[in-house]
Design brief:
By secondary structure, the chain is mainly α. The chain has one domain. The protein is built from eight helices and no strands. Helix 1 crosses helix 2 (24-47), helix 2 (24-47) crosses helix 4 (79-103) and helix 5 (126-139) packs across helix 8 (173-191). The protein is globular, with a radius of gyration of 17 Å.
Length: 194
């Protein structure tokens, strides 16, 4: 994640609370505070995708803002919670995009431009990854949440603790660290590495 100063961190939560209360200007202020960070998160997620992905980071962030409207009513408690929800939404967007792409006939539809540095980076197939995470979540829901927040959200262990505690799952940094190691090992075994 991109480093933020303390006023930005508190400002994110304040903007989220005001936005939930109906202040439309708060979403614009939130955008100013988090856009660069979300763009870096999107680029990071796309680097983990297969080579030749047709969605670029800017388009992914813009699609995220469209989907965030459905998250307005969340009882926002902290910035970590915002980035956790953003990461989940980006994951869903990537999975939906991959499914639409597979369903389309070859050559049909509009292909969004891809940034050159992302075209050569290999990664797991997003649909296989989503299916694996679904199976993992059935058996290990807390560990799956940690994996999603770290892998998709790019959150640090401390940010994962903050986000999970805000959502009611009380965890320590040590638990998150242990869950992260376990989850990565499980996923690497499941997908043959990533």
């Amino acid at each position: 994640m991109v480093a933020m100063d303390a006023s930005s961190i508190g400002g994110i939560t304040q903007c989220l609370v005001r936005w939930r209360a109906g202040d439309e200007a708060a979403l614009d202020q939130l955008t100013d505070l988090v856009y660069t960070q979300l763009r870096h998160l999107a680029a990071s997620l796309l680097m983990k995708e297969r080579a030749g992905h047709t969605l670029e980071p800017t388009a992914l962030v813009h699609e995220l803002y469209f989907h965030l409207q459905g998250a307005r009513e969340i009882d926002w408690k902290c910035r970590g919670q915002f980035f956790a929800i953003s990461a989940k939404l980006m994951r869903r967007i990537l999975v939906d995009h991959a499914r639409r792409r597979i369903a389309m006939k070859r050559g049909a539809g509009e292909i969004l431009p891809l940034e050159p540095d992302l075209a050569t980076v290999p990664g797991p197939d997003v649909i296989q990854l989503d299916a694996a995470l679904g199976r993992f979540a059935q058996e290990h829901p807390r560990q799956a949440a940690v994996l999603e927040l770290r892998f998709f959200g790019g959150l640090s262990e401390d940010e994962v603790v903050e986000a999970m505690n805000a959502s009611g799952e009380k965890v320590s940094r040590r638990t998150v660290s242990r869950d992260w190691r376990f989850s990565r090992a499980w996923l690497q075994d499941e997908l043959g590495g990533f």
